[in-house]
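Much of what follows relies on a compact textual record of a protein's fold. The record below shows the convention in full:
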Amino acid sequence: MAEIIKEKESQIPEFANVSLLNCIDLSSPDVQSSVSLLRQVCVDSGFFYVINHGIGEEFMDEVFSQSKRFFNLPKEDKMKLVRNEKNRGYTPLFDQSLDPANQIHGDYKEGYYIGLEVSEDQSDAQKPFYGPNRWPSEDILPRWRETMEKYYQGALEVARSVSRLIALALGLNINFFCQPGILGRSIATLKLLHYEDQISEPTNGIFGAGAHSDFGLITLLATDDNYGLQICKDKDAKPQIWEYVPPLKGSTLHRVLGNGQERYSIAFFVEPNHDCVVECLPTCQSEQNPPKFPPIRCEDYLLQRYKDTHADLITYK
């Protein structure tokens, strides 16, 4: 997971474990050094900061401001835009449960999904995760759609830049992931997130977001200046060691702990296109190290993961 840098450092609980992540500078002319660093951080944790990514701080502030404006609307107004079968729209508290075996409710967060805008008269609109977005009225939230669509395109370009470094780190052609069959027509999803001022109680199964690894190729995450994100570098360790990721100015197991303060973040999930076969890359296997998992179509995998972690839509009817 890459964290887009927007925020300043905030207070982390005393005596807490803290993960010191490396920064990947997308403007660096020394590509080989960036590739080497990226390879190391992906082996270590899968998390890193992305700096000089081309999305201006002033614009990021505007995206967060517009996000807050939506979540500040009355509940009845938000529910008019509740998530549909294409996974577009508002997700209320507890809609998602990322670690059901260890949670007593769902996640203490509300969200808003935005995907690639595909009109209903296009053939692609028949595919899962593709279709028209659900947009708040311009009268209620002026420039909201414009802001989110602009950020969507900017984040997609950042993801493509990161994917090129990942390709080189894996010994592949620089544009391996950008080819039409992978990210050329990707399932990229923007999700606005709002965590309430609930204090998490891990021992009692109460989390802002339960422990999970993300579903796709790359996740870009922008957060405000409130701590809460934690990562676990070794999911098989007993006990697991969770480390806070400090906010910084400017797919590993992870979770979010509520700290008694409202918290906002913006996730951008980048998955391959529907028919892409997800399988072990040739540079990542050998006779001594064969693939651990069978191939699977991206669409099939995502449909199952969303079904496993989201409330049934009939709940909202």
Summary: The helical segments are 31-44, 57-71, 75-79, 144-169, 180-184, 298-309. The first strand starts at residue 2 and ends at 4. The CA atoms of residues 223 and 265 lie 4 Å apart. The chain has six helices and 14 strands.
